C-alpha cells in the first residue's frame, strides 16, 4: 500500500478536499498536485525511506509537500514552524532528514544558521527551488510499500523530558477515521476544523487524515489559534466538527466566543491534548447546548483511542480500539493499560529502553495511569509519576489541579501540582499557580478556600505563586521541571 494514496482514494473528484485562506482544492486537483509533488521529490533525488521534514505553517502546500513525499516512498515529518533554530537543531540531529521543506522565512533562518546538512527545499537563495521543480515535474504513480514500512514520524511533546521520534507505518492511516466515523458520525458531507496544527498528532490524525479518508472537507489555518481566531474561522468556514484543546475552550468561554459560535452549525466539539476539567465541560454545555466529547490519544496512537461523552469523565475505547490491563493488579490501584489499533506506531527511533517499555507485539502502553471501574470504563489519573501515595491513599496530581482550578475559576491562569519530598522524608504535594492579570489577591483567597475543602491527604503543603509556568514549544506544560521550581521557591522563601 501507499499511505498517501489510501488517504486520497475516497474523495469524489469534484468534492472540496481542503480549504485554507481563500484557496479551495478539490480531490481531483489534490491528487494531481500530490502526484506531481512526488515527481518533484524524485527529481530532487528522494529515495524510498528518505526522511523529509515539513517545517512551515499549515497550508495546502504543506499537505501537498507532506503527502507528496509519502507518495514518492519517503517518510514525512511535520515540525512546529515556530521553533527557534536552537530548538530545531536537536530534531535535525535526531532524524537526519534528506530534505527540509519550508517557506521563505524558515529557509532564511536555516541558511543563515547553517545548522543542517539536509537539502533545504524552498523558494529563495541557498535552497533547491521548490516552485521550479514542481512546475517541471510530471505526475508519478504512488510507490507501493509494505504495510509495516515507515510512512511518517511524529515528535512527542516533551512534557516529561526530551522529545522522542515516533515512527508510524503505512497502515496507520487505514482506520484513522474510526473515531470520527464511529463516535462523531463523520461523512463526506462534513467539514472538519482543528485549532491545533498539523505537526500535532491530534490535528493530523483526527482532522486531516480522518477527513481525507472519507472524502470530507478539511479546513486549515496558517495562523496560530486564539479564541478570537477560532471564532473567525468558524464564522467564515462553518465547520461541522471542531477539534480543540481544554485551554482554548476555556478561553472561548471567558471571552464569550463559545456562545457566539453556537449559532454556526457545529455538530460536535471534541477536546483532547490534555485532561478536560468538569467545569469546562459543564460551562460549554450551558453556553452552547453541546456536550464536549473528550478524547485520549498520544503521538504513538496518532488518533484518539479513548473517549468520554458525559460528566463522569470516565472513558471507553473508541471503535476498533482494544484495551487490556494486567489481571493480577488490584483494580483499585491506578495502572497503565495496553492499547491496540491499526493506527498504533511501530515504535520510537533509536530509543531501545523506551521501545521495550512501551511497545510489545503490536500493543502500546502509554506512561499514563488509569483506574478501572466496575463497568469497564477508565478514569484518567495522569502519568505514572503523577500518582502519589499520601497517608496511605492514592492521590492524583490531576485531581488536585482540577479541583482547585474549578474553585478559582477565572481568577486563575495556570495551575500545576507535583509530588515532592518534605523535610521529614514523606511525600507531599506542592502547587504552582499563575493568577490571571490583576486578580492575584482574589486568586489567592479562592485557592485557600479550595484547599480547605479538600480531604486532608489531597491538600497541598505548599502553594507557590509564579509569573509563568514552563511550557514546551507546542504549548504543553513541562511537568519535568516542576519539582525544580518548587525547590527553588522553597529555597528563597
Automatic annotation (TrEMBL):
It comes from Aromatoleum aromaticum (strain DSM 19018 / LMG 30748 / EbN1). Keywords: Ligase. GO terms for molecular function: acid-thiol ligase activity. GO terms for biological process: secondary metabolite biosynthetic process. SUPFAM superfamilies: Acetyl-CoA synthetase-like (SSF56801). It comes from the Bacteria. Residues 15-349 form the AMP-dependent synthetase/ligase domain. PANTHER family: ACETYL-COA SYNTHETASE, ANTHRANILATE--COA LIGASE. InterPro entries: AMP-bd_C_sf, AMP-dep_synth/lig_dom, ANL_N_sf. This is 4-hydroxybenzoate CoA ligase.
